[in-house]
Design brief:
Length: 717
């Protein structure tokens, strides 16, 4: 058996499996030894495939448990059950992993101390991830009473290796305590645990100095240095998480700028992630200029990685897509939609399957559309409202537009343009070459919104299918010892344990500990370094996916109205209302649907949609149907922040004008004029009403009596 163990540690898995197979053929009668050899053999076969077939390995472990569960106890099958939990945890089946670990927790007193601590530690991690606070607190007390108090009594008998492992376990438990206290918003406890970590670090530094005096081997000294560096980074990371939980963005940015570690400067991906995180902190702190500066430095650091290292690892180290996404957000806040549009297109190289990137592209087109309309409205008159003039003098009749006027914003159709024809996307020293650039148009915006809808629907279907499988498997196996209940949870690698067999080499673990894992705090749920869709992230952000779907439908409805496509606008608004959105999106969806119905010459249906908006806000449908006289007259102060109500009344008045109900429409326009008397939109509505009624002289007097129109923003103040 020692030979097989030696071959396994040397990664000679074929020879190790052959050695274990010969031992298994010679063994008979001893079930404990047979279980041990079979579990070793299964682990060797799993490692031979490069850990690419976890399902087959899990089936082998399940077969071992079913075969020997009648003859052996849970304690005898402890390592096999723990490996089942590890594989299920890696496959994001946390419920099954929790069931395995719970069976080990009940017999923790009889288990091997190493196995007992690892099982309870993983169960504690699962409880924190699932936000089971009471269960997590109980597990913390269990670990402290079971593994640390008994060890302190026999501390003199323990060897140096055992005390060192005990310190590592204390460090791991403190890290989980910090996470638990942050989940409970207990910041004082988190600070206390961080101070305890600092004491452990100082104690280890003192021990390291003593060991250096005793002239340890170079290998032992290297291991000590690596563990201390890893601990120092975890302490700094915990402090940053604490400042972020307190929403102390200034303190967080100060800590990050003061972060100076010599070991991490050799890490090629450190500086791009570091500046990206700083930019995200500044962006959350509403400092778009500073954030843009840090994102620029992050892009420059990222470009140096691609130049210096020409290997396949550059694809995983390249953070350009997410940095460009964050830069695009800054440029949107700085009112530069054209530059932001190109940055978002650059982010599509890796983030093409993220619906929010497509939403941002559509928003850039709309922002540019609004800017062009605003510029042209300041120059042009209101002549486009008049369709035709018949007669002269007092017999003159003005025929007004009853549909959508000419488009003064972006082009509706998409045009193929070259990179040089687009406005330069240089921001400071940033220059982009070779990025495919499309023209900004309403057609492209509608395509981007449609892409976001399709991606969101597809991802939601995947999550629903996973949840259905979870419910069916759990219902079919309620009476079994292990329920088949799959829920998607956080993916994290753990060490496979099998009676002394450990997955991986100690040298590899120490090399992995040398690297610093900086999590990129990219905004809007964009995970750093992850270009593929992770079902774990989607399950936790299920609500955000639904919001993206609703936002995409809302954008598509509005863009379709701008493109003079009322059929698509109405269908998108109907689909959005079927998802039961929040009141704000429901209000806009009803308004867009009403406008689409007006364009389709169906004012009755438009009236129903507008009445729904009034019903969900301050008015009732019964009062609306009885007439505007029953509506409560509000003072301007009460409606100071309710511009949307005023727009709703005006839209309803326009629908009534199309139905030739001039008397009722005038009452609604009067109600809107009481709310915002100085609004140019309300005054133009009054003029439109008089012209529709044939009172050209009254319309002229209204135009003469009113002064120069103030901007809409000033009229609302």
């Amino acid at each position: 058996m020692n030979l097989a163990h030696r071959l396994f540690t040397q990664k000679k898995y074929n020879e190790a499996s052959q050695q274990i197979s010969t031992l298994l053929e010679k063994t008979s009668g001893d079930n404990k030894k047979i279980v041990k050899l079979k579990s070793h053999l299964a682990l060797c076969e799993y490692m031979k495939t490069g850990r690419t077939q976890p399902e087959e390995y899990l089936e082998t472990l399940n077969g071992i448990v079913k075969q020997f569960s009648k003859d052996l106890t849970t304690v005898d099958l402890g390592y096999v059950i723990y490996n089942q939990a590890i594989i299920n945890y890696q496959l994001k089946r946390s419920q099954k992993a929790a069931i395995h670990l719970e069976s080990l927790r009940k017999n923790v007193g009889s288990l091997d101390p190493y196995l007992g601590f690892e099982a309870t530690h993983l169960l504690l991690k699962l409880s924190i991830e699932n936000n089971h606070i009471s269960q997590a607190n109980g597990l913390v007390s269990l670990i402290e009473n079971q593994f640390f108090q008994t060890n302190t009594k026999n501390n003199q008998k323990n060897s140096e290796l055992q005390t060192r492992n005990q310190n590592k376990n204390k460090h791991r438990l403190l890290m989980l305590k910090i996470k638990l206290s942050l989940c409970c918003s207990e910041h004082n406890k988190a600070e206390l645990f961080i101070n305890q970590l600092q004491e452990i670090k100082n104690r280890n530094l003192q021990q390291q100095k003593e060991n250096q005096i005793e002239k340890l081997n170079e290998k032992d000294l290297l291991n000590e240095n690596l563990s201390l560096n890893m601990m120092r980074c975890k302490i700094e990371h915990s402090k940053m998480n604490l400042e972020e939980a307190k929403n102390n963005l200034w303190g967080l940015s100060k800590m990050m700028t003061n972060l100076k570690m010599k070991e991490e400067r050799n890490y090629s991906n450190f500086w791009s992630s570091f500046y990206n995180n700083l930019g995200c902190v500044e962006l959350k702190n509403n400092k778009s200029g500073s954030a843009l500066f840090y994102f620029k430095k992050a892009l420059m650091a990222n470009s140096q990685i691609c130049k210096n290292e020409k290997t396949l690892n550059n694809f995983s180290k390249d953070k350009r897509s997410e940095i460009m996404y964050n830069t695009g957000l800054c440029l949107i806040l700085l009112e530069k939609p054209q530059n932001a549009f190109q940055f978002f297109q650059g982010a599509l190289v890796c983030l093409y399957n993220r619906p929010r990137v497509w939403i941002r592209l559509a928003e850039c087109c709309l922002l540019e559309h609004f800017r062009l309309i605003k510029d042209k409205e300041q120059k042009n008159s209101l002549n486009h409202l008049v369709k035709k003039v018949i007669g002269q003098g007092k017999y003159r009749t003005v025929i007004l537009q009853t549909g959508i006027g000419p488009n003064d914003g972006l082009n509706i159709n998409e045009e193929s343009v070259s990179f040089e024809d687009i406005v330069s996307s240089n921001v400071g020293d940033l220059q982009f070459h070779g990025i495919p650039v499309q023209s900004m148009s309403l057609d492209y915006a509608s395509k981007a919104a449609s892409n976001s809808i399709l991606i969101s629907e597809k991802l939601l279907k995947i999550i629903n299918n996973q949840n259905q499988k979870t419910s069916t498997t759990s219902n079919n196996n309620k009476n079994s010892k292990i329920n088949e209940n799959n829920t998607i949870q956080k993916n994290e690698k753990n060490v496979l344990i099998n009676n002394g067999f450990k997955k991986g080499n100690e040298k590899e673990k120490q090399k992995n500990q040398e690297k610093i894992n900086i999590n990129n705090t990219t905004l809007n749920s964009l995970k750093s370094g992850n270009t593929n869709i992770d079902l774990d992230d989607l399950s936790k952000n299920d609500q955000s996916l639904k919001q993206d779907l609703e936002h995409g439908l809302l954008l598509l409805s509005y863009i379709s109205l701008c493109c003079q496509n009322p059929v698509t606008a109405l269908s998108s608004a109907k689909m959005l209302l079927n998802y039961n959105p929040d009141p704000y999106r429901a209000y806009l969806a009803n308004i867009y649907a009403a406008e689409a119905c007006c364009l389709l010459n169906n004012p009755n249906l438009a009236k129903e949609y507008i009445s729904q908006t009034l019903q969900k806000r301050r008015y009732q449908v019964e009062k609306l149907l009885k007439g505007p006289k029953n509506l409560k007259i509000m003072t301007p102060k009460e409606y100071e922040s309710n511009w949307s109500d005023c727009v709703t009344l005006l839209n309803l008045a326009f629908v009534l004008i199309l139905q030739n109900e001039i008397q009722t429409a005038s009452e609604y326009i009067k109600q809107a004029s009481r709310m915002f008397p100085n609004s140019p939109l309300v005054l133009l509505s009054c003029v439109y009403l008089e012209l529709s009624n044939g009172n050209n002289q009254n319309a002229l007097e209204l135009l003469k009596s009113c002064h120069a129109f103030y901007p809409l923003e000033n009229s609302q103040k």
